[in-house]
Predict the 3D structure of the following.
Amino acid sequence: MKLLFIGDIVGRPGREAAIALVPKLRAEHAIDFVIANAENSAAGAGINGTIAKTLLEAGVDALTLGDHVWDQKGWENEIASFERVCRPANLAVQCPGRTHVIVEKSGFRLLVFTVLGRNFMGPKVDCPFATADRLLAENAGRFDGALAEIHAEATSEKQAMGWHLDGRVTAVLGTHTHVATADTSLLKRQTAFQCDVGMTGPHDSVLGREIEPVIQRFLDGMPRRFEVATGDVRLSGTLVEFNAAGRAERIEWWSVRAD
């Protein structure tokens, strides 16, 4: 079976690319599951119900979120109504939304969840390692394979999570930095791993934002509005092929131009 995980969708350019490309990629490559991180899909920060609905209707099976989960006003009142959207699992227990989703195709049940890293990150969250362990234990017998997303800054934390879950999940894939890493690999116990799958959005940019205001901010430190850029739009994602036992057999990083 095949799983495509799409990295951080940024703003209108990113979501339009995902909407246009997902059906085409699914058909051309016989992809079974498409999961996407959509935490930056609304104006570059957060998500709303309209965007979530549009991405799901375009053929994305489930949406994950990250540290910008609550950036859009009112989303906290909408998130619970989306059965195929999950917020980071290690946020405070009283936060609204699902900690995980299970999607099924051809009798195969895929558990999907995200944990936030704790190094160089803003939100105060529970231990991502303990949270991942708990989710796997609580859902034992309810899934055949699992995608564990770690939304984190530190590559060391992401690598440690990969080794921690090796052999227990199908894939450990990282997001958050918007820059893809050249470390796609199959770990010793057949878990697919990559520190960061990259960004879906405008690459003629600084992390999806217009270049000049970011440069000027570095030069003088003055606050500026960072608008979402528009040039060189690409879908960044990682394809994982796995067997009926949920063991990864192949991993490949993709960068697909929207035009």
Summary: Residues 8 and 199 are 5 Å apart (CA to CA).
